[in-house]
Amino acid sequence: MSIWHSVTLIRDKCKGCTTCIKHCPTEAIRVRRGKAVIVDERCVDCGRCIQVCPHHAKRAVCDSFDKLGDFAYNVALPAPSLYGQFHNLDDVNIVLEAFTKIGFDQVFEVSAAAEMISDATRRRMRSEERLPRPVISSACPAAVRIICQRFPRLIGHLANHVAPVDLAAMLARRAAVRETGLPPEKIGVFFITPCPAKATAVTNPVGLSHPVMDGALAMSEVYLRLLPAMKKVENPPQIATSGIMGIGWATSGGESAALLGESYIAVDGIENIIKVLEDVEDGKLPDVEFLELGACTQGCVGGCLTVENPFAAKARVKQLMKFLPVSRSRMTGEIETLSYMDTTLSHVPVWQFDTDMTTAMEKHARIETLRERLPGLDCASCGAPSCRSLAEDVVMGFASEEDCIFRMRERMMYLSGTGDAEQYLPPPFREQKK
Amino acid sequence: MPDIVRLHYDVDGDNFMAAGEASSTVKNVLKRLGIGEDMVRRAAICLYEGEINMVIHANGGTIDVSVSPQTIEMVLKDQGEGIPDIEQAMQEGFSTASDRVRDLGFGAGMGLPNMRRYADSLEVSSEPGQGTRVVMTLNIAPA
User: Fold this and answer.
1) Which of A96, A141, A304, A314 is within CB 3.0–4.6 Å of A251 for a Cys-Cys bond?
2) What global pTM score does this model have?
3) How far is B50 from chain A (nearest CA, A)?
């Protein structure tokens, strides 16, 4: 099954080094014939490889601005992290008004929908004691995908609300239809995304059977268009409909703070997420009521499509919030029905050795035997991130034991004379097949 | 059918920070074998309780887990001072843990009762001064 991913390799720039494979939290990259290859089934679009690639050979594919031309009326959905990108911004309305000068007819703040979801979650956590604790945020698609792949027992803990941007998209389209009288398909709804995980979720939504947006535009590209447009905005109209609670979602801890509870933890960074999920699964965090997860450093402001460094962006968001009311958007009954997922999240068993348990056990035994024979250096010269992952690849049929340069050397010495150890090349360095 | 998957761990004595490592590792292997969530959870609880007991009372020990399509068998061995009265040790709330251990939040006397509750079978054999051997079995499928 091929899955569309925003995270993509730029072949010409890839030098076939092993940086990305060593950093990928889901071991979803291998180096073959001098180039990185992404394993679609495992990639969660977290963007770690984009951040670490020294050659800028990975990128987050988003839609082009030209796509606005396909629609009669266009609505922008800015993520709250956008507000942290600008120097000396003291009024969100300047950013929002500038959208009307770069090709959009309307703007709907994702932070307003975030405030509604916070409102509903807060109420549900107070009234529905039987929600499994901790309730886990479903706002970061990379985190949700990690849970579906590796922590199936925690799927039931995920809040079954759609992501704020999905709710924003549904509300924005409805409002635009009412305002213009156009059919819904003539309205273009575009997310201004801080990261590839959310760009992928525009096409493959989390917990929704159908996409609710028409495209994702990279925040970095939108930023460059907004800057000159913002300079022309004087006395902007009052467009903003969100307060501290909604805009706070831009950084790690904001979503939790909006729940007004005390026993929550907010985790940022994908490696940290995995560690904390292990602890939750092992029952080590019994007192935690709510678990906020964001794959990027400091939360969405750390997304690889943002412009400003996450720490500075966080400080700016904090500064902006000083002048805002606590909350300006509330969840109402009619909107609440829209805010629930319409499909059930399920286990994506990409980490299982096999779908048949007996075969899985046999494979595990072979993996362990092979792993013991490998040097344990985790040098990645074989194109896999570690000796253990090479052992898994060999047993799964994706690699050969002789891809290990040490194993190959031993073999050549054993065969003494029939092959030249000097000429041996591990897979990352082999010539491309003609 | 012979056991297919065998896992061995040495548990350090008195290292509270590392306690739980073996049960967490076993849990992750069981998950990747496709064993059901509930079974994985029960095995992890049993092993964790056993692991903690070895750290608290016996200065560490060894864990051997073997998994076949029918059963998960976990054998925990230590060279600690042993359990003089196993019946008494099985009672909820009974504990001989030191105040220091209790201050750390362990020693509530729920270890063995939890193991009995979550394992399909539990055998404890012990000789005072000779250590303790705990065998827990979980049935994946009817034999």
Assistant:
1) A314
2) 0.90
3) 14
